[in-house]
Write a structure and sequence with these properties.
43% helix, Rossmann fold, Arc Repressor Mutant, subunit A, alpha/beta, six-stranded mixed β-sheet, 2 domains
């Protein structure tokens, strides 16, 4: 299989140089283990898979075990399988600090963000930093139309994107969905019937990019609105669904206040909807929405510390697909169009009058960059990600 270098490797290595422990979060099969091993290969290291009974047995007495590997970089995969490790890790890290081993001791990998953060918030406070690894982004693959289209159709999970053909890619994604529903969610979350959760996940795919309507979904599933809210919390926690909040403006407008939801990997959205080829995708009503989700996910993945994001929609028809607040004072308004001749609608211009953004972009599926008028630029997905990096890498003062 072709190897694709992950952009977050440098960031992860930097965090390890600053913290005794780093938590790398992401859904299963997204490439966490591969990235961790690539870092471990450059130094004396030990890899433990906490789903393995043998590796679990090694940690029956974690203090004694880790004492035997004091000068070794240790990777703990699927750390949420052994929450009891966090307490001894605290003592081991503190002892290492007293002996001058300040940073880069542990890399812990986990598939559920909230669960892992809650488990470690008290015991490892001040001793661990976190970063998230998502599927391949548009700037990690070749900037060619065919490759960008493949990313949109298949999504960015490595084994899906790199599959030998469309049938193999679809098969992998369907197996991934089935495995999550039947095994992983049952282990990581509350007991929810797999078929109920599949219907909920599929409904979210159908409603990609729409305001979350708990009452409507609850009626379709035959459960309460509170229960549907818990389902959404679980899928967000598992890093499978993105909940995008409305942008709160002080412009005195009546704003839509329900969050919008997106299946974070567009390939999984297509698999849930039985979309397996580009011909089917281009004719499907959800095409524009999954393209929008791909763009939003790429941009939010690269947001710097201190940035904020949301969508803007008023009852009067003003609307922006994505608003980014970037430090120190930049505000971007981003419209997303699945058209080679992109043209923002009137609602976008009305929203810009309200928000007064410093930059306005229309992201479209082409590769060229061109002006659409004063302070409005049509731009490709890879280029706007690069633009975001360029702007946010500037000194803040």
């Amino acid at each position: 299989m072709v190897m694709i270098n992950r952009e977050q490797k440098q960031q992860l290595e930097m965090m390890l140089s600053l913290q005794p422990a780093v938590g790398l979060l992401g859904p299963r099969q997204v490439g966490k283990t591969t990235l961790a091993r690539s870092i471990a290969d450059s130094r004396p290291s030990l890899y433990l898979d906490l789903e393995s009974p043998l590796d679990q047995a090694k940690l029956a007495d974690p203090l004694a075990f880790f004492a035997a590997y004091q000068d070794t970089f240790i990777v703990l995969d699927e750390i949420h399988r052994a929450p009891g490790l966090f307490q001894p890790l605290r003592g081991i890290i503190d002892e290492g600090r007293r002996q001058g081993r300040e940073t880069g001791r542990f890399l812990v990998l986990g598939s559920a963000s909230l669960d892992l953060l809650q488990q470690s918030s008290e015991t490892l406070a001040g001793r661990i930093g976190y970063m998230e690894l998502g599927p391949f982004s548009a700037t990690e693959i070749q900037v060619e139309m065919a490759e960008q289209e493949r990313l949109w159709l298949r999504g960015g999970f490595p084994k899906s994107y790199l599959a030998s053909n469309e049938a193999a890619s679809v098969s992998w994604r369907q197996d991934f969905i089935r495995s999550y529903l039947e095994r992983d969610i049952a282990q990581l979350g509350p007991r929810i019937p797999a078929e109920t959760l599949r219907r909920f996940w599929t409904m979210l795919a159908h409603n990609q990019g729409q305001p979350f309507n708990a009452a409507q979904l609850a009626g379709s599933l035959g459960v309460s609105g509170v229960t549907v809210g818990r389902y959404l919390d679980l899928m967000v926690d598992l890093l499978l669904v993105r909940r995008l909040s409305p942008w709160m403006s002080n412009a005195g407008k009546r704003l839509v206040r329900s969050p919008k939801t997106y299946i974070r990997d567009c390939g999984l959205a297509h698999a849930l909807l039985n979309i397996g080829t580009m011909d089917v995708l281009l004719g499907h009503p959800v095409a524009g929405a999954t393209w929008e989700g791909l763009v939003i996910e790429n941009l939010l993945t690269h947001l710097p510390f201190g940035a904020d994001a949301g969508f803007y929609r008023t009852s009067g028809g003003a609307e922006v697909d994505l608003v980014l607040s970037l430090p120190p004072q930049d505000l971007w308004a981003i419209e997303i169009k699945r058209s080679m001749a992109p043209k923002p609608e009137r609602g976008f211009h009305l929203a810009c009058e309200d928000l007064q953004p410093s930059a306005r972009f229309v992201v479209y599926p082409g590769l060229e960059r061109f002006s659409l008028g004063a302070n409005l630029t049509a731009i490709s997905l890879p280029d706007i990600v690069k633009e975001l990096r360029r702007v946010t890498s500037r000194p803040l003062c």
